[in-house]
From TrEMBL:
InterPro entries recorded: Acyl_CoA_acyltransferase, GNAT_dom
Name this polypeptide is given: N-acetyltransferase
Naturally occurring in which organism (per UniProt): Pseudolysinimonas kribbensis
A Pfam family that the UniProt record links to this protein: Acetyltransf_1
Domain N-acetyltransferase intervals: 4-150
SUPFAM superfamilies xref list: Acyl-CoA N-acyltransferases (Nat)
């Protein structure tokens, strides 16, 4: 791996971000039901879409939302989505992206970051726990609500 860096999602890298190939079965975990229902509450001014770049290649995508006034605490500093190309999962790209998200949340004055995920074989639970999220509750849809103290 060359040195990883973040770039804002834009017209130049959006196709590459949308073309990231995940491991078989991971598509089922891309958007938890809770986020599908909460999406109308998002304010685009508070969204934080970024790609992870290695050299000239887009190898990951992360989307977060930062809204200190969100009605639900879990939407205030929320990791909304993280995708890493299948062939490089396990090499630190996801950890790098989550650390960048946590750094951004901290810089914006948040003391806690959250993420929602569904359990299941091939799902993201082990990853989220390995980067420091702990389960602090369950959503009305039966998904895990994870928190990372900043």
């Amino acid at each position: 791996m060359a040195e990883l860096r973040l770039q804002e999602l834009d017209a130049r890298n959006a196709v590459a971000a949308n073309s990231l190939m995940l491991k078989p079965g991971q598509e089922a975990f891309i958007e938890p039901e809770t986020y599908a229902h909460a999406e109308p509450q998002l304010d685009n001014a508070n969204s934080w879409p970024r790609v992870v770049v290695d050299g000239d290649d887009v190898v990951g995508y992360i989307m977060a939302n930062f809204d200190p006034d969100a009605s639900e605490e879990f939407l205030r500093a929320a990791l909304w989505r993280i995708n890493v190309a299948a062939d490089i999962q396990g090499t630190g790209v996801g950890r790098f992206a989550v650390q960048a998200f946590a750094d951004e949340a901290r810089a914006r004055g948040f003391r806690r970051a959250t993420v929602v995920w569904a359990s299941g074989e091939g799902g993201p639970e082990m990853f989220f726990q390995s980067v420091g999220f702990t389960v602090v509750g369950e959503t009305p849809y039966g998904e895990n609500l994870g928190a990372l103290d900043l």
